[in-house]
Structures are given as structure tokens and as C-alpha cells.
């Protein structure tokens, strides 16, 4: 036994009391789905966890109708104070059931228990606690007095942070007075369904939160549903693009939180010990299944060899294995499909001439696994330097000057996040100013907080989640035209005149115009 | 004997210059009572692309200028417009068939909107930004930054005020703009370009195209180097197709706004073309 080998320390699964089958959560109750049910499996063992209902178009109709009723009859009429109290209740219930949720998350998703226990679930509680307090303070959200909820929100979330993404979506939506229909990812529905039980325990009015499970077609039916006023999606840029097209010409408001290819820039004066830990956290946290992962390491040429050497040493100490083991650093890849994608892109890296190095670790027999991997000698044109890999694979590139680092960092259609490692404070600020990315971490990486807006530039999507900005994504000003209230006089007069005649939601939707002849 | 007037040739405004359309095309602009006013340039796909190149080149400088500086430049537009009030009033009166008072009111409104937005330049970040009280030893701050290159289909039913209402807010935070002017009333747009060209607005920050929005807008909507698309005046076009085209590069899109209230002054219009950047700084005594 080397000093790296620890005795197994598995977190007990006894805390879970899972059902064998889960239905859809619509109008406050679990109901059968009308599509063909599917299995959720543990990616670490490929064991079946439970059978999950599959929502078809009729189920989507029911869920949206329940959300609409709940919005019109209950939630939109409730005081902000009471909405807030419900959210506070949910935050507390999440805290009370934190261990259970963490175990379920690691089981279903494959992420290490130390991450689900110490990062995901605490942040879930924090998210509800934060937005609970906003519910009766919407006048301070920056949209003027009496902002209005949008109505029914369709929310589609990914498999990388199943419960956390649920919290990012549901908490601000409910605080703002919307009701929701949320679809968790096909491979990770479990914690969302336990969350449905929490919603019941909180005695939330039926229909305020509806959770429907299924695959991409369920999501598309939800996003495209006429009864939906707001679409919030986190996932791949390809699907985000499809959603943007699907909602074109409707009245729906959209926020998209999509892919990334973040640059993590390490200058030669960086605090090297922290930087190594930060690089590891940046790309190997959650097996690299992180949209804002620091998958492109830009290291100043003079320290390249030292950084790569130390990274290899550090990666050699990471423990890959059972997600429920408290000593595990690297869990399972979420699905066979994702594993294939990582392998394919990684092989392309080798084929394009980059050098691959993988940490020497034992891969379990069952389940989906990928050893932490570094590519050196990577060219900016290589696919592994351009495409989101969404796995534990780091591409190392070099730079000489800050200008070159900035240019390389920005040389991507993505713009979600970036990292800067240097001891020089003024350089941090100047570089951060020039990075075209929505979140910049200086001498840290992958930090999240409910009070801190998160979201992308360019093709990483639009809109923000977290903070006051995240609340605004679920609100509209009291009257569309009265937003000119601070404007010059003529506008004030005209907006006052039209202010009383706010068109209804249905009539406000612009109809697709008939095709005009070539306009001269 | 009365003096023979000297009419103006109206051209495009791209990269600070006034070129004719590379296509060599023009179209006739007539007054409200049907009289000939001018041959306006009919911009082509190539002109639109040239305008995008000019705008892209101007973003860094304009976004990098201090907010105080941008505010002064926008205010200077108002100053110069005020000085040319009579010219714009006459132009609008003739083109739109308004009374002199109505045309003058439109010019006044346009000037006042420049003033309103000019004042926002060095305040917007304070109102839209945040210090975030995160649960950890971090200084965490969110600030708005310009989205980049914004393509605008200006409101089609006015000469000046609609155009200004769409262009000014996009400039506040530091975006560069390509605007397709009103097809029926393009002349004031080019006259405004003359004001912009002489009011310290860096070249390329505003580019004005005249011609057919139906023809030009699709090229802007699908252009990969355009970051945002304001369809405020595109209500009569196949704007859904434009929104779909814009989705290919996930452009930020503002949908059409009908009526005289279109693009009313609002903080939202500034915010629509900004991105929130959040920066986490570690705090430590070591």
C-alpha cells in the first residue's frame, strides 16, 4: 500500500429511500407519464437506479396548464412576502436533507461525494435562501416599481450539476412570481424528483413547480409550447442555437447558458502552488463536466516546463474511483455517450500532433471513466484547443506577452469564463478588462455564489443567472412603454397615454408577418 | 431673379467616409407631395459587409474610451444637431409632409434624446453594475461591457427621431453600430451622418446605410462578426427569418417595436447591448 492508497471510505447509501419508479411531478402530484419510461443508471457501476417516466407532448400540455393555473390563480396573487417564505422553507428543507441529496446526486451523476456534499448541495440551499429574500423586494431589482413576473417559465437543465442547475432556475423564477415547468437531463433526473418531494413537504401550492422527465424531444416540446412565456436553458451551444431559432418570432423571453472553452492564463509571477491547485480545480473539478471549465491552459513560455511537470505530479496523486467514496477526487464520466465524445476529441488531439499524457490510475471495470489527461504541444488551430471537450482533459498552450495571452484567450466563439494567475494586481485588472468572458476568476477558479451574476459573452449564450441580474431575467418592467418614464417630456406624455392600455400577453405577441413583396 | 439652389448628393456613411454604394445603385426619394428630393444610395451586401468591418475596427477604441469621454462625444452630437436645427426641420418637413412645428418638434426630441443618453455614459455602469457579497474571501464585482457590433434596422416611419432613438443607446456603453435607415425617409439619416462625422465620433463607430432594409438586413443578421441585432424598425420585414438567422451565432436580438413609441428612451435599451462581466478577486493578507 503506497501513501496514496487509502482504505475505502464510502458514504452510506442507507440514507436514501428511493422509489423503484418515478412519475412526472405535475400540479403537486406524481403522475404517470405517457411516453416510454426509461432507466436512470449509475455511471460508476452501470447499475439501474430507478425507472423514470417519460413525458410526451400531452404531458407537457398538462404541466404547462398546471403552471398557468397556478400562476394566474395563486402565485401571481400571493404577496412577495409569502412567496419568499415558501422559498425560505425550501432552502431549509434542502439543508435538512442535504446528505440524502448529496448521496443521490453522486449516485446518479457520478460526481465525487465530496463535491456534491461540499459544493453542489450547499450552493443549492444558498441559492434558495438568497432568492427567497428577493421575493418581497422586487422594486429594487433595477426595473422600476412593480415589475411583473413573465408567467410560465420553461426550464431545461443539463446533467453536470443536476440539482444546482435546478436551483439556479427555480429559485429566481419563483421569487419573481413565475411558475415553472422544469425538465432535468435524461441521465440525471433523480435529485429533481427528490426535490419534488421537498416541494410537497414545503406545501408549495400545486402547479407552482412542475418537473417533467424525458429526453430531448420532451425538452423541445416544452420550449416550443405556446403557453410558455419564458425559456431558460443551460446546455450545449448546439441546442441553445436550436432553441433560439425555435422561439424566434414569439413573445418568449430567453436566457441561454451554453458552452465554453475557457482560457486559464498563468503568468510567470503567479503564486505557483495555488496556480497548480487552481488549474487542477479548473479542469478536473466535476470530471471537467463544467461549462466554464478552464480547458485551455495558457501558460507563460518561461514557466511552461515547470508548470507541466508539477501538474503531472499533482494529477498522479488524484484518486479516481467510486463517487461515493469520501476520498475520491475524480468520479465517473456521466454517460457512455459523453465518454465516447471525450475519447473521440482526445484521439483527434493526438492525430493533430499534440502530445497526450494521462495520469497513471486504475480504471474500474464497470462504469464510465476517463483518466485525467493533459495535452502539450497544442496548436491554437487544434480541435482540442477550440472545441468544448466537457471532460477531464486539459490543453496546454503558451504565450510570451500579456497581449498575446489576451488575444489567444479571446480567440474563440465562446466567452463564458476565464482565469488569471499573477501576483500583480494591476495586471489582473487590465487583463480582466480585455477578456471577452462573462466570469473572470483571478487567482482562483470555479467559484460560484448566488449573489454573483454568471453567464456568457458571444456564443456562450445570453442573460445572467445569480444576483440581481439573474432575478431580472424573470421580470419585465411594470409597463413596456413606461420604461421611458425618466425620458424627455414628449416621451413621458406618450407613454402615460398608452400606459393604461397595456395589451394582454396574448395580443402582445407579434404575429409572423405575411411575406411582403420585395420592398422596392 | 431667384437664386438656383445647389442640391446635395446623399451617399452612404461607412468608416467615417461618405462612399456611394459599391453597387452603383441609387433609388429615388420623393417628398410627401410626390416631388423629387434626391437619389439616395441603395446599399448592397458588399456595403453592409464593409460597414461591419468598419464597425469591428472601431469597437476597441470606442469601448476603451473613458465613459466621461463617450458622454462628451454624445453630447457634442446634440450641440451640432442644435446648430443645424433649421436644416433638419426643413428636410423633415418636406420629406414627411409635416408642419414646420411638427418637424421642429421631432428635431428637438432627437436632440434631447442625445442629451439624455449622453448623460448615461458615465452612470450606466453604476446603475447596472454590482458589488456582490459572496460567501468567501473574494472581492466580487459585476460590470456591464458593450456587446460589440450592433446592427440596427431603424424605425421606418420617421426621418430622425426613430434613428436617433435606436442608435444613441447602443453607443452609450461603447458598441459600434451599423444602422439601416428608414427606406422612405433616408435623407435625414445621411445628414445626421454629417453631424456625426464632425462631432468627434470616431470613424466606424456609426455606419449608416440607406436602401432596402429587406435586402440589407438578412446579410447583417447572418454576419458572424455582428454581435447583436436590433429589429426595432423591422416590423414590416420578414423579421422572424432575421431572428432565426441571428440565432446561428447567438446574436442578441431585440424584436420589432411598432408605433411612434418605438425605442422610447429607456435604460433597457442601453442594457440590451451590454454583457455583464463578473470578476472574482482573491483577498489575502499574505
TrEMBL record, chain A:
PANTHER family: ALDEHYDE DEHYDROGENASE-RELATED
Active site: 257
UniProt entry keywords in alphabetical sequence: Oxidoreductase
Family, as annotated: Belongs to the aldehyde dehydrogenase family.
Name this protein carries in UniProt: Aldehyde dehydrogenase family protein
PROSITE patterns: ALDEHYDE_DEHYDR_GLU (PS00687)
Region (Disordered), start-end ranges: 473-520
Basic residues bias (residue ranges): 505-520
Organism per entry: Agromyces binzhouensis
Automatic annotation (TrEMBL), chain B:
GO molecular function: oxidoreductase activity
UniProt feature coiled coil, ranges: none
Gene3D superfamilies: Aldehyde Dehydrogenase, Chain A, domain 1
UniProt cross-references to Pfam families, sorted A to Z: Aldedh
Domain Aldehyde dehydrogenase: 26-236
UniProt keyword Oxidoreductase, yes or no: yes
Protein name listed in UniProt: Aldehyde dehydrogenase family protein
Native source organism of the sequence: Agromyces binzhouensis
Amino acid at each position: 500500500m503506497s501513501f496514496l492508497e487509502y482504505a475505502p471510505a464510502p458514504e452510506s447509501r442507507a440514507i436514501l429511500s428511493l422509489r423503484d419508479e418515478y412519475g412526472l411531478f405535475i400540479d403537486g402530484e406524481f403522475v404517470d407519464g405517457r411516453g416510454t419510461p426509461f432507466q436512470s443508471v449509475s455511471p460508476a457501476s452501470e447499475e439501474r437506479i430507478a425507472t423514470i417516466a417519460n413525458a410526451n407532448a400531452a404531458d407537457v400540455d398538462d404541466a404547462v396548464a398546471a403552471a398557468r393555473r397556478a400562476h394566474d390563480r395563486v402565485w401571481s396573487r400571493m404577496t412577495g412576502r409569502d412567496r419568499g417564505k415558501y422559498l425560505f422553507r425550501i432552502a431549509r428543507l434542502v439543508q435538512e436533507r442535504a446528505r440524502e441529496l448529496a448521496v443521490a446526486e453522486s449516485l446518479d451523476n457520478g460526481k465525487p461525494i465530496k463535491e456534491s456534499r461540499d459544493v453542489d448541495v450547499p450552493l443549492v440551499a444558498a441559492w434558495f435562501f438568497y432568492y427567497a429574500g428577493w421575493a418581497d423586494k422586487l422594486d429594487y431589482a433595477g426595473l422600476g416599481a412593480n415589475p411583473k413576473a413573465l408567467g410560465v417559465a420553461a426550464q431545461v437543465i443539463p446533467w453536470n450539476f443536476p440539482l444546482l442547475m435546478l436551483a439556479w432556475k427555480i429559485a429566481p423564477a419563483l421569487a419573481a412570481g413565475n411558475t415553472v415547468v422544469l425538465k432535468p437531463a435524461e441521465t440525471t433526473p433523480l435529485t429533481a424528483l427528490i426535490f419534488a418531494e421537498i416541494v410537497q413537504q414545503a406545501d408549495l401550492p400545486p402547479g407552482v413547480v412542475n418537473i417533467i422527465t424525458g429526453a430531448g424531444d420532451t425538452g423541445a416540446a416544452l420550449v416550443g409550447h405556446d403557453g410558455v412565456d419564458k425559456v431558460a436553458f443551460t446546455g450545449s451551444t448546439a441546442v441553445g442555437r436550436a432553441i433560439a431559432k425555435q422561439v424566434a418570432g414569439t413573445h418568449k423571453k430567453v436566457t441561454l447558458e451554453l458552452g465554453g472553452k475557457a482560457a486559464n492564463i498563468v503568468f510567470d509571477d503567479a503564486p505557483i502552488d495555488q496556480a497548480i491547485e487552481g488549474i487542477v480545480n479548473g479542469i478536473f473539478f466535476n470530471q471537467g463536466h463544467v461549462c466554464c471549465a478552464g480547458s485551455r491552459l495558457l501558460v507563460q513560455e518561461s514557466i511552461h516546463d515547470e508548470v507541466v511537470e508539477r501538474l503531472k505530479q499533482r494529477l498522479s496523486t488524484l484518486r479516481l474511483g467510486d463517487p461515493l467514496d469520501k476520498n475520491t477526487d475524480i468520479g465517473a464520466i456521466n454517460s457512455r455517450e459523453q465518454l465516447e465524445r471525450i475519447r473521440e476529441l482526445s484521439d483527434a488531439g493526438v492525430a493533430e500532433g499534440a502530445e497526450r499524457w494521462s495520469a497513471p490510475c486504475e480504471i474500474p471495470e464497470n462504469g464510465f471513466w476517463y483518466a485525467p489527461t493533459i495535452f502539450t504541444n497544442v496548436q491554437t488551430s487544434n480541435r482540442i484547443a477550440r472545441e468544448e471537450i466537457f471532460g477531464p482533459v486539459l490543453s496546454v498552450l503558451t504565450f510570451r506577452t500579456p497581449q498575446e495571452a489576451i488575444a489567444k484567450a479571446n480567440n474563440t466563439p465562446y466567452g463564458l469564463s476565464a482565469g488569471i494567475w499573477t501576483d500583480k494586481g494591476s495586471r489582473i485588472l487590465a487583463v480582466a478588462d480585455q477578456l471577452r468572458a462573462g466570469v473572470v476568476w483571478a487567482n482562483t477558479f470555479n467559484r460560484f455564489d448566488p449573489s454573483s451574476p454568471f453567464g456568457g459573452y458571444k456564443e456562450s449564450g445570453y442573460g445572467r443567472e445569480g444576483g440581481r441580474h439573474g432575478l431580472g431575467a424573470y421580470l419585465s418592467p411594470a409597463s413596456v412603454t413606461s420604461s421611458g418614464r425618466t425620458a424627455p417630456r414628449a416621451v413621458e406624455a406618450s407613454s402615460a397615454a398608452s400606459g393604461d392600455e397595456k395589451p394582454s400577453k396574448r395580443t402582445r405577441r407579434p404575429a409572423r408577418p405575411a411575406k411582403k413583396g420585395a420592398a422596392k | 431673379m431667384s437664386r438656383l439652389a445647389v442640391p446635395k448628393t446623399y451617399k452612404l456613411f461607412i468608416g467615417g467616409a461618405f462612399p456611394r454604394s459599391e453597387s452603383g445603385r441609387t433609388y429615388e426619394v420623393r417628398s410627401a407631395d410626390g416631388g423629387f428630393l434626391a437619389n439616395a444610395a441603395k446599399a448592397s451586401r458588399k456595403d453592409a459587409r464593409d460597414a461591419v468591418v468598419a464597425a469591428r475596427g472601431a469597437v476597441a477604441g470606442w469601448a476603451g474610451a473613458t465613459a466621461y469621454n463617450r458622454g462628451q462625444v454624445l453630447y457634442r452630437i446634440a450641440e451640432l444637431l442644435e446648430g443645424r436645427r433649421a436644416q433638419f426641420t426643413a428636410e423633415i418637413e418636406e420629406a414627411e409632409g409635416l408642419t414646420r412645428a411638427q418637424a421642429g418638434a421631432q428635431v428637438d426630441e432627437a436632440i434631447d434624446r442625445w442629451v439624455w443618453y449622453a448623460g448615461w455614459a458615465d452612470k450606466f455602469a453604476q446603475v447596472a453594475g454590482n458589488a456582490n457579497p459572496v460567501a468567501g474571501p473574494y472581492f466580487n464585482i459585476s460590470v456591464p461591457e458593450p456587446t460589440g457590433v450592433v446592427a440596427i434596422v431603424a424605425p421606418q416611419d420617421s426621418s430622425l427621431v426613430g434613428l436617433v432613438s435606436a442608435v444613441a443607446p447602443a453607443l452609450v456603453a461603447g458598441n459600434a453600430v451599423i444602422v439601416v435607415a428608414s427606406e422612405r425617409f433616408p435623407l435625414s439619416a445621411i445628414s445626421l451622418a454629417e453631424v456625426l462625422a464632425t462631432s468627434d465620433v470616431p470613424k466606424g463607430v456609426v455606419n449608416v446605410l440607406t436602401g432596402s432594409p429587406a435586402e440589407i438586413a438578412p446579410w447583417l443578421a447572418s454576419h458572424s462578426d455582428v454581435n447583436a441585432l436590433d429589429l426595432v424598425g423591422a416590423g414590416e420585414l420578414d423579421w422572424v427569418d432575421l431572428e432565426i438567422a441571428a440565432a446561428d451565432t447567438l446574436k442578441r436580438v431585440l424584436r420589432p417595436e411598432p408605433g411612434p413609441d418605438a425605442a422610447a428612451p429607456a435604460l433597457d435599451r442601453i442594457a440590451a447591448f451590454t454583457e455583464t462581466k463578473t470578476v472574482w478577486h482573491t483577498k489575502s493578507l499574505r
